[in-house]
Amino acid sequence: MKIIKSPEVLRSNYIPDELLFRDDLIKKIQKKIELGTGNLLLVGDTGIGKTISVKKAIIPYERQIIFVEINCSNDNSYISIAKRIIESIKKTNYSNNGKSRSQLAEELIKILKTKRKKKIILFFDEIDKLIDKERDHQEVLTPIIENTNSNIIFVSNKDQAFDKLDTRIKSRLQIQQEKVRRYSKEEIYQILLNRAQKSFNDETYDLEVLKEISKIYFHTTGDIRDALNVLFQIGELAEEKEEKITLGLLDEAQRRANEKEFLDVYETLTDHQKVIILGVANLSSDGQKGYVEVKNLYNFYEKTAKNHRNSGGRDIGTPVGFRQFESFLKKIILTGLIRIELRTIGKQGRQSLIFPTFDAKKVMEKYYN
Fold it and tell me: 59 and 78: one domain?
């Protein structure tokens, strides 16, 4: 039974012809682009259409602008962002091998100062990931402010995203902040219905399934991407079983969606970071604690990495020292796989604790047993 006719429609990066319930936001972004001045900060919860609204808004202006997209979850250092800006503007690969930081800075300033017919739009997604790094955000934003009149659009999941921003930079940016509201339960349903009609063949799904998914994700994450992922998984599952999409398949589809979300992120990690995730899964599920002390996690990592082989059967090399290990932790936190909290643990006093955001037991069963 053929269920899915257009799988791309259910992908989180799909830009529909009509972006439901975000017309006003798109118009505000486009007004900034048309004026050619002023900078905008969009804040709001994860998965409520901030990023896709920006990408939808620029479509009518694609021939008139140079759109530079920087995802600060991936690029949050001065070198990686400067390289991204240079490559996006020049539309060619750029190698900074053998170049000093000052040489890279000179090239960035030169390309920003160059007069051109097209307007530069700089889009910093998840800007808080950059602002948390004081030196890097100053080095990145200062030359942009001083050497170009580009529009800058920032997106963050945090209302207080700019609290740590250098006050001189904040004053010069003159940012207009726009709070993006969450989707209502009915809006989530209408989005899912719109995508289902485009993605699934007729009469292959029950509307009750869409209503239930809408209710679940309205009351939990509020993230439309999570809802779309489950919708895709339930479609694939129904197709495998050669039956119609019904509520009876929803639990299994949710489990699949959670596993896929974990695996997508896990595969981006380095070998050493994967060993750390192994340690989090192993130690947090031991004794039902649900967390692991940072010092115990490092001891596990140090011991395990010495004899660990990657998926290709190669040794992963010597374990790093504690400071570099802490750097690894910070990078993993940015992926959303773990979170860190300071808590008082009996006589031990205040301890840094790592909590997995994934199902530790299932990860142990599937990937490490």
Answer: yes
